[in-house]
Amino acid sequence: MDFQDYFPIWDKLNTAQQDRLRGSLFTRHVRKGTLIHSGSADCTGLLLIRSGQLRAYILSDTGREITIYRLFDRDICLLSASCMLRSIQFEITIEAEKDTELWVIPAEIYQGIMEESAAVSNYTNELMASRFSDVMWLMEQIMWKSLDKRVAAFLLEEAAIEETTVLNRTHESIANHLGSHREVITRMLRYFQKEGMVRLSRGTVELTNVPKLQQLCDE
Questions:
Q1: Predicted confidence (pLDDT) per residue in 27-70, tens digit
Q2: How many C-alpha atoms does 3 have within 13 Å on its Cβ side?
Q3: Quick check: helix, strand or coil at residue 198?
Q4: pLDDT tens-digit profile of 177-200?
Q5: Beta strands at 54-59 and 46-51: parallel, antiparallel or unpaired
Q6: Rounded to whole angstroms, how far apart are CA atoms 181 and 59?
């Protein structure tokens, strides 16, 4: 399928706007682990994912990471167009969690069309509201949920995404997602293993008791 099959408001653009968009965008194929966007000075453009998976995260002053949201097929990343969003006060980094194929929409082209089209403006506001909700949900998790529940929820989410209970995740990568330290995550996973919820091996976490992990999340 082509770009217009993935862009949800394509039919609400006029012919001239469609031509401008089609003529300016380009495709990228990025390998797992590739940094696509880094910091407010890097105006990459909007990213529309054809296939693959991206992770958006922020860095603390001490270099600790925390994932703020993830992007999958058909998702659009707006925060990668930082030059278009002057009011954003934090720097975001985007990396490929899997081999990914995507379209890049230049920020100046999209912004020009947004200024002309109420449909594009409304759609952009909806995207921003959705990402803001993601960030607020994350803040609630950090502030009000204990780490054991956050780790359990992450493992269950990973199992749902990968459609397997055997997760190829290091303790370091889990810590980076949750904004924690590797040593803390290791202690938590060892506790989970002692309780029969997971089985640990090098670079792998196997979920052995999904109902018990879910119960922990729900408590």
A1: 999 999 999 988 755 688 999 999 999 999 988 777 789 999 99
A2: 19
A3: strand
A4: 999 999 999 999 999 999 999 999
A5: unpaired
A6: 13
- H or E stretch including 131? helix 118-144
| Beta strand 204-207 pairing with 166-167 | antiparallel
SS3 for 218?
A: helix
> What confidence score (pLDDT) does residue 218 get?
87
Ranges of each domain in the chain: 3-143, 145-218
Q: What is the DSSP letter of 62?
A: T
Handedness of CA 129, 131, 132, 138 (dihedral sign): positive
Domain 3-143, CATH 2.60.40.420 — does that match?
A: no
Question: Per residue in 141-159, pLDDT tens?
Answer: 888 889 999 999 999 999 9
Dmax (CA) of the chain: 63
Q: Which stretches does DSSP call E strand in 3-64?
A: 26-30, 35-38, 46-51, 54-59
In the chain the first and final C-alpha atoms are separated, in Å, by 44
- Which letter does DSSP use for residue 63 in this model? S
May I ask the CATH architecture of the domain 145-218?
Answer: Orthogonal Bundle (1.10)
- Which residue matches tokens 């862009």? 7
Q: What is the pTM of this model?
A: 0.84
